[in-house]
Amino acid sequence: MIYSERNRFSGQRRGSIEVICGSMFSGKTEELIRRLKRAEFAKLRVEIFKPVIDARYSEFDVVSHNRTKIRSTPVESSGNILLMAGDVDVVGIDEAQFFDEGLPEVCNQLANQGIRVIVAGLDMDFRGLPFGVMPALCAIAEDVYKVHAICVRCGALAYVSHRLIASDKRVLIGETTEYEPVCRHCFLEIAN
Ligand SMILES: [Zn+2]
After folding, report:
1. Is 181 inside a domain boundary?
2. 95 tagged catalytic
3. By residue range, what is the domain housing residue 131?
4. Which CATH number do you get for residue 98?
5. What does the alpha-carbon distance between residue 119 and residue 35 come to, in Å, rounded to a whole number?
6. Could you give the number of structural domains in the chain?
7. How far is the CA of 183 from the centre of ligand 1 (A)?
8. How far is the CA of 38 from the centre of ligand 1 (A)?
9. Does 81 map to a domain?
């Protein structure tokens, strides 16, 4: 990684924004947890936030599909992150696509204060459209890391989370029964 934990020890803290994005089952949350745990091992003060909407596994943990987890604080809005991320070195944000429009500005403010901000989220919704604040976050980030699931239909790299059940609701918290990762080619075939 480009941004090292050594920043804290160089005398002057350097803030930055990292984005981890991809479809469902691509390992976004595992990658977020990996970076945050590494920071914790380096004795950095870490705070993790997620939107209250994601109560899939646990109210207070960020949990990946393979059940790795790390303690987190559910918040109602992006403004809460600014209030609660007082004396920390690293801020992690999971399921960023569900946050309000204020999140990019919040991330900028945190990074400008010298905090390393690591954001994970779905890049596209089930229709293949950019999801919420994710495009804006990718634009202002120093580093964007796109992770991929494997297409369940052909084995190529997946790029979108296809919804298996009929619903037009954009926010539908799901598991393998509701979504499957598919590549662009298979997604087009399903749509036609
Ligand atoms: Zn495919």
Report:
1. no
2. yes
3. 16-148
4. 3.40.50.300
5. 11
6. 1
7. 4
8. 34
9. yes
